[in-house]
Amino acid sequence: MTHKAISISVGARSMLALFALGLLLIAFSSAWQLREDAHRRAAQTDTELDAIPLLYAGPLAYSLRQQAEQPEAVSGLLHHILTRHHLRSVELQTGSGQQFRALSDDDAKPGRSARFPLADAGELRLQTAAASMGDTLRRDPLLRTTLIHLLLMTLLGLCAALLVDRLLLRHLQRLSDRARRFDPTLPPQSLSWIDADQARPREVLQLEQAIDHVRISLGDELHREQSRGRELREEIARQHRALQQAERSLEAKRRELASLERNDTLTGVANRREFDQALRREFKRAQRDQGRLALAIIDVDHLKPFNEQHGRAAGDEVLRRLARLLAEHFQRDTDVVARLGGEEFAVLLPGFDAESAQGLLEVLRDTWRALGLPHGALPDDALTDDIVTISAGLAAYQPGHPYLSPQALMQAADEALYLAKHMGRDRLCLAS
Fold first, then answer.
1. 191 — phi, psi (to 5°)?
2. Which residue range(s) make up the domain with 104?
3. Residue 289: which pLDDT band, with cuts at 50, 70 and 90?
């Protein structure tokens, strides 16, 4: 319910309440005044009642003496007393036993009665009418007219209150109830609270139309806000998906970077850095546990002329095939296959002595020869067949033949490889 409607409702009800209160006060004051008038009239009647014998004792005695000549004189005097003093009945009892009576046509309730002895005339009996408010109204035309007008005003006021309540307040209350049930999140498509067939004041119609205008504006604004909310949620979802994709890409790059830090980019086996760390770790373990550790360095024979003859891509493929063969032959969790650089590879075999490692490497060399990769660019002084071959140098740390450091073990394997190449390649040499 709007502020204007509330003000109209409160103001109209206040005016009706004040009007009704004024009418009640007027009615209470009139009733009080009527009651006081009745009491005052009763007191006046009592005073007159006591004065009547004194006022009419002489006329009554005279009328009784003239009764023989004027029989109606006593009755006329009694009727005069009755009407003059608004009595209910007047009776005269003579000493000879005669009775004269005058009665009022008023059917009012009997009031005070009194008897007064008359020296020469007998006894006078008087009875007044009850001094009620109804009797006061009958005797006072002005007061009666005032009360009738007051009653009419009261009736008109009640009718006005009913009309105001029916034409204004009831509509405002209905409008307030339906506006309170209005759901702004689901704005109706029509003026559901306005009944076109029902008559109502122009002001109420204007108020309903104003509220409906606000409803439509709220509905439009709600629709726009909902659209913006959906767009915002969709944008947030897109940003979230993009963020997740970026996180996945970042994680892949991180794994790739970590792999690049540990693995050789061309062959996929461990790189020199990873190999050096593994060599230091396993050498310390062998020293601590008095264990065994074999190290082999493998080199592709005459790779440079091969690259010159067949191209660098063909040489890279030879290196990748050799790396795959090494990975297939040395599959233990503790075995380490690494590319040291160029055409040179290293194999670290924890727990192996020179003799057992030599057997594995001979099998590897024979397997590689069995591939029969044609070379096509061997030097004239080459002692091997026209295929790509490998040479290897092997050194082993063992209790009977310890080395002082990882570098010493590495140097021994290098010297063995140099010896294999010097002796014609395609062979395995052991460090002394």
1. -80, 80
2. 3-141
3. very high
Is residue 179 situated within a structural domain?
no
For residues 100 and 194, state if they share a domain. no
CA 11 to the chain's CA centroid: 36
Q: How many domains does the chain have?
A: 3
| Inter-residue contact 201 to 167 (CB < 8 Å) | yes
How many other C-beta atoms lie within 10 A of the C-beta of residue 283? 22
Q: Is 58 left (phi over 0), alpha (psi -120 to 50) or beta?
A: alpha
Say which residue the tokens 């440079």 belong to: 304
Nearest C-alpha neighbor of 390 from the set 357, 417, 415? 417
Q: Is residue 356 part of a domain?
A: yes
Consecutive H or E run containing 246: helix 202-262
User: Which residues have C-beta within 8 Å of that of residue 115, sequence separation ≥ 6?
Assistant: 123, 124, 125, 126
> Do 254 and 280 share a structural domain?
no
Tokens of 119: 């020296």
Which of 262, 288, 314 is where one domain is finished?
A: 262
- Give the SS3 label for residue 267: coil
Quote the CA–CA distance of 302 and 389 in Å, as a whole number.
Answer: 8
In the chain, what are the helix, strand and coil shares in percent, each to the nearest 5? 60, 15, 25
Reported as a single tens digit per residue, the pLDDT across 308-326 is 999 999 999 999 999 999 9
pTM above 0.85, yes or no: no
Block residue for tokens 């091969």: 306
What is the C-alpha to C-alpha distance for residues 227 and 237, in angstroms, rounded to an integer? 15
Residues forming beta bridges with residue 345, ordered by sequence position: 298, 339
Digit-coded pLDDT (tens) for 51-60: 777 777 777 7
Query: Is the same domain home to 291 and 402?
Result: yes
Residue at a domain's end among 239, 262, 285:
262
